[in-house]
Specification:
Elements lengths: L35 E6 L14 H9 L18 E6 L7 H15 L3 E6 L5 H11 L4 E5 L19 H9 L4 E4 L6 H10 L1 E3 L1 H4 L7 E7 L21 H11 L4 E8 L10 H17 L2
Parallel strand pairs: 1-2, 1-3, 3-8, 4-5, 4-7, 5-6, 7-8
Bound molecules: manganese (II) ion.
């Protein structure tokens, strides 16, 4: 539970029986000493489906209070990590470009840490990847998503949550984007993927080795809508949580992950907070799997 907060860097505030329920698990460390930095990005300006993912960072923070900090998958505990909740990016409503510029600048600030970025919709992955490229020129991106997000444009818009992986693939170059969980895409996206990215089933992902640093992006619609109904664009037939947790546990032995995001949770369309709760659990397991 979140009670371990007072077990870290002590201050006189720890004498008081109060806590701030709008923080991810740990927040005992300043930016200079934290190893893991959470950043919320409450932005849903290009959502083509249901809107509302801007509400996700705070909903996921609330749900994180329901979870144990220990993981039975990784046998590790969040309480052992030095973490900082950096807060939410101040977005510019109606202005995608300026919002993404702000996000890129913010990630450049914290890029030497292990960033955990909580969306918001999927376009936010683009500036994060751009910022991390400075630190990691050989970066690969591993995407868990029901969709390929490889459209060249949508209604004339090149910067959208349905074009995000196309833009990232163009920046990184051939073969540096690996996509898994995809089950909803058009023939043009499939054609682009054949030439430029790798599509792997979760099973095949384990046989494939990615050399060099990896940024992970988890779109919550990769999960089955039965357990994750609160997403912008649900697609039947997705992963279970157990499948995901076991998969990343196996990958944790080989992948050098330098940060990740969890995007597309859409609280206004959620049932009983279950997708936000799942997102909190996904953040916890992913962080513990890839952070020693
Ligand atoms: Mn996506």
């Amino acid at each position: 539970m979140a009670f371990f907060k007072s077990a870290g860097a002590l201050s006189s505030m720890d004498e008081l029986y109060v806590e701030n329920p709008l923080e991810f698990w740990g927040n005992n460390y300043g930016l200079s000493s934290a190893e893991v930095v959470f950043l919320g990005v409450p932005f849903d300006g290009t959502s083509t489906g249901r809107t509302g993912s801007r509400e996700a960072p705070n909903e996921i923070r609330k749900m994180s209070y329901n979870l144990e900090t220990y993981s039975r998958y990784s046998k590790k505990d969040l309480a052992d990590l030095k973490m900082l909740d950096y807060g939410n990016l101040i977005t510019v409503p109606g202005d995608t470009d300026r919002t993404l510029e702000r996000l890129e600048a913010t990630i450049k600030d914290i890029g030497q840490k292990f960033p955990v970025v909580v969306g918001g919709e999927h376009i936010i992955t683009l500036p994060v990847v751009k910022a991390l490229l400075k630190e990691h020129p050989k970066l690969h991106v591993l995407q868990f998503d029901a969709h390929l997000d490889l459209k060249d444009e949508y209604l004339g818009n090149k910067y959208s949550h349905v074009t995000v992986m196309r833009r990232i693939s163009e920046i990184l170059g051939k073969g540096r984007v690996i996509q898994t969980g995809a089950r909803s895409y058009d023939p043009d996206e499939r054609e682009y993927a054949k030439k430029n990215t790798f599509i792997k089933t979760p099973e095949n992902l384990l046989k494939y080795s990615i050399k060099g640093p990896v940024y992970l992006t988890v779109d919550m619609d990769v999960f089955d809508p039965a357990i994750a109904p609160g997403v912008s664009t649900p697609a039947p037939g997705g992963l279970s949580f157990t499948e995901y947790a076991e998969l990343i546990k196996k990958l944790s032995g080989t992948l050098e992950v330098v940060g990740f995001d969890v995007v597309e949770t859409c609280p206004p369309h959620d049932e009983a907070g279950m997708t936000s709760l799942l997102a909190a659990e996904v953040i916890k397991e992913t962080l513990l799997a890839f952070r020693k």
